[in-house]
Amino acid sequence: MGGHPSELLAQHTRQAELVEQLILLAKVDTHTLSQTRQDVSVAALGKEALKPPLKPLLRMVADKQLTIDWQVSPDLMLHVNPALVKEALVNVLKNAVEHTAFGGQIQIIGIADPIRVRLKIINTGSPIAEADMPHLFERFFRGQYATANNVGIGLAIAAGITRENDGHLSAENTAEGVQFTFEFFR
How confident is the model at residue 36 (pLDDT cuts 50, 70, 90)? Predict the structure, then answer.
């Protein structure tokens, strides 16, 4: 078998996460996600998304000395499936952390108007290649700057979950990096 037990455990954990993500992707593709919705605070979703089951993500934030700037009002509400939208948020946050350079910043900004709620995740990472932009939310697409562990399903899952909750996920390059925007109608 070979390998240190901690390495084997890490590989097992990664494979289990991949299987879970593939099952979720299949449900997105077949429109069989749970339609159970409730009013939920965006701030509460964010706190759940950053809880300790994501130790590798939090470790990467610490190792890269990233700053996470949370600018979301506690009373900003969505009517969505909280477990699924949390998963979408986690996938976009993972992407932001992976592509933000050492010492960089990730901003999470919540904005509401009478019609919709927007949640922007802005990182100071490298811009997305223009040729990659139209394919960003496609299943198994790996962009020019994909990491070795990237299989290209996280953003597809995030976009699918967002659509299933009557929302839209978009991405654009900014002067400082990349901005992903979740948009949900009230």
Answer: confident
* pLDDT of 174 over the 90 cut: yes
Nearest to 125 by CA among 178, 61, 55: 178
Task: Provide the domain limits for residue 75.
Answer: 5-185
Query: What CATH number is given to the structural domain containing 82?
Result: 3.30.565.10
Name the more confident of 77 and 9: 77
The pLDDT of residue 57: 80
How many domains does the chain divide into?
Answer: 1
Q: How far apart are CA 66 and CA 64, in angstroms?
A: 5
